[in-house]
Structure formats: C-alpha cells, structure tokens
Amino acid sequence: MQRSHDQYEDAALIRAAMTGDRGAYGALVDRHLPGVYAVVLRIVCNRTDAEDLAQDTFIRALERLGQYGMDHPFRNWLLKIATNLAINHLQARRRERLRYPRIAETRPETTGTPDDGPDLPSPREWQHWLAQLDEAPRAAIVLFHFHEMSYLEVAEVLNVPLNTVRTYLHRGRRRLRELMTAGRLPETGSCTVAM
Amino acid sequence: MHCSHVKRVIEDYWDRALPAEASHRVELHLAGCPACRSEFGGVDDLLRRPVLVDVPAGLSARIAAAIEANTPDGRRAASSRRDSSAWSRLLRNPASGAMAACLTFLLLGWLSSMLPVEQQSGPPPTPDTPPLSPALLASVGQSMTLPVPVSPLAAVAQAAALEQFMQSVAEPAPVSVRNLSFIEEAPVTDPPSAAQRIPIIISRLSALGA
Fold it and tell me: What CA–CA distance (Å, rounded) separates A10 from A6?
C-alpha cells in the first residue's frame, strides 16, 4: 500500500518534471536519494565513488526522463540506472587494477565507526566480504536482500532472466559461505566504508 | 528441525520462498545450533540484518547544482565561465604565460619579415593585374554559363587574359621611338596611336626617297 502511494506521488512529480519543473525533479531527488545512494555504496564499497555515482544517476535519469514509461515503479527505474553505473564502475576499476596494480593500491579509502552489537560482524568486515564477490552476484544480493526487491524486480533492474537472478544469488551466497567458513581476510584495497 | 533439513531449505529460506512458519523454524534452529550457525550464521547475519546507510550531508545540494549545470542554461553559463576562467588560468600560469610570450615574439618577427624594406611614398604602384572591371565580371559570368563546365578560378584567369589582350589591341603599349631615328619622336604626353604613326612613317620614308 505504501509503495503504491509512493508511486502515485512519484507520477505527479515526474509529470511536472517532464514539463521542465526543476522543483519537482528536486523533490524526486530528495525522495529517492537515500535508496540510490545505499545501493551504489553497497555495490562499489567506496563512499566517494558512491557520491559521484549517485549524482550521475540523477543526471542521467533527468536526461532520459522522457523514456520512463510510468508502467514500472520509478524507484526501480532509478535503481536500474544506478546499478548499471555501479557495475560499470567496478568493472572499470578491475581493469585499472589489472593494468596498474600499484596505482590501484594507493586509492584512498574511507573508514567508519561500527555501531552494531557484539554478535554482528562489524560493518567494516561484512562489507569486505561483499567486496570479494563478482559485480553481478554482488548487485543481485544488494538489491534482493538489502533493498528487499523481488526476483522479478531484480531481473528488471539487472536486465537478466529470472533464472539468472537465482543463479547470481545462489552463487554469491555460496561464495560468502566459503569465505566466511575459511576465515579468509579480504585482500588490501577493498572497501572500508562508514556505515 | 534437523540440520540436514536446514541445509536443504536454507537457500529457499534466504530467497524468502518458505512459508512464514517454516521460515521461523529455520531462524530458531540457526540461533540454537552451533554447527549450523558456524556454517550459515555469518551469511545469515550479513543478509538479514544490514546496516542502515546515511546520506552524506550536502550531497542533495551538490546533485541539485550538478543538475543545474547540466541544463542548457547551466551549460551556457558554465561555458562562459569556463572561457573566462580559462583565460585567467592561462594568465596566472607562469609556464603558459612564457609560452604565450614566445609565440607572440615569433609572430611579430614573422610579421615584420613580411613587410617591405623600403616604404615608397607617393601614389601606389600600378598593380600587375588589372582590377576586376565590369566587363571582366560579365565575362566570368558568361563563362560560367557555358555548356562546358569551367571552374570559377579558371574562368577568372581566362577573362583576365582576354581583357589584357583586348586592351593591348585597343591601346598598344607606347613604342620607344628613341632608337628609330627615321621616325619623328612622338609627344611624351600623348603616345601616338597606330593610325597616327602610319602617316609619320610614310612621310619619313618619302623624305628618304626624295
């Protein structure tokens, strides 16, 4: 019910934004920035990159606002743009790391302070586990588990069939179990994010 | 619930595909079974209890500014700011300023080499090529309408050559009469035309014969 109400409000703002109402688009940004930022941050595991990617997401969404068909939730359409940008960014970083390993190691990392209970792994650690996954399974896990999307919604955002989403999730979770069971520490250069 | 059963359904549990009651039993088993907690607990904690993410302060305003800069009005303003700021950066940068000074000297030197050594005073010299007269322009236009296609440059060259020829026939260049002793020297101000020179030659030839 809440989601349908949000979609109704989004539709009114989108129609106004399409006519050039910048205030309406600013309202859309304020409504969806937390979700977009959380997705890109959990995928790329770097706060500075996540801020840039969030900005790029809303700029690109404004450019392509005419292509939004109102038949799917605006949130999912935004997250599709954000996820694609985040995955492309990770792939570019991976190529950079392979080509220039020394430069990749000197990239600045952000640190944060854990604020969870003693039973939970510290935020620093579990983001490191996530950073060990490939881009597609990582994105699938972030969208499905952290943003409570359905299989169908994840398939739409990642633009893959449902079976592929299932494969991504199972592969990603199996990999996490292997890493956690083996007790392997993440390699240097992976994310350290303030959560 | 047995551990083997949990291992069979754990993926469905994480997929949120189990009924509520079955999901609750798995959750209780994971909380109470050390073996299953060791194998599945880490992933279960990671997936089921994510940490909230706070949006950094100022990010919304920064995005609004970026969107404004990306609009057509914003891009025009940014372009003018970029142009002016580019010049100011150029002036402030010592390296680029030195390069600009060198280029300026080179340009001035090249320009000065192009100037003639002696500046002549008085009326300007007669140009080597005749100016474009209306007849010339008309001939160019006529050549352009010929059935055989003629390029504009070729048409202009042809017309200039034609006009020069026509002028030479109508007004022959003044003949130097100093070396021809049997021909009376013509007045300097009015060079004799062909028709005027013929009687003079005939009279002189007659004088020689007489």
Answer: 6
- Distance (Å, rounded) from C-alpha A47 to C-alpha A32? 17
d(CA A76, CA A153): 7
Predicted interface score ipTM higher than 0.85: no
Location of structure tokens 């280029």: B103
Q: Do the Cβ atoms of B46 and A181 come within 8 Å? A: no
What pTM value is reported for the model? 0.59
Q: Is A37 on the interface with B (CB under 8 A)?
A: yes
Per residue in B69-103, pLDDT (tens digit) is 876 655 555 566 555 555 555 565 666 666 777 77
Q: What is the DSSP letter of B56?
A: P
> Letter for the amino acid at B194?
A
Please judge whether A62 and B51 are an interchain contact, meaning their C-beta atoms are less than 8 angstroms apart. no
Residue A110: which residues within 8 A CB-CB, separation 6 or more? A46, A47, A48, A192, A193, A194
Distances (CA, A) of A171 to A87, A185, A186, B43, B99: 17, 20, 18, 13, 59
Stretch (H or E) spanning A75: helix A74-99
Tell me, yes or no, if A180 comes closer than 8 A to chain B by beta carbon.
yes
Do A75 and A184 form a contact (C-beta atoms < 8 A)?
Answer: no
pLDDT tens digits for A112-124?
333 333 333 354 5
Contact A180 B70 (CB under 8 A): no
Contact A59, A103 (CB under 8 A): no
Lowest mean per-residue pLDDT among A167-176, B16-25, B127-136: B127-136
Helix H, strand E, coil C: the string for A130-188 is HHCCCHHHHHHHHHHHHCCCCHHHHHHHHCCCHHHHHHHHHHHHHHHHHHHHHCCCCCC
Q: In the structure encoding, which two tokens stand for residue A73, read together?
A: 């939730």
Question: Residue B177 has what DSSP assignment?
Answer: -
Angle at B151 between CA B148 and CA B157, to 5 degrees: 105
Looking at the complex, does the CB of residue A95 fall below 8 Å from at least one CB of chain B?
no
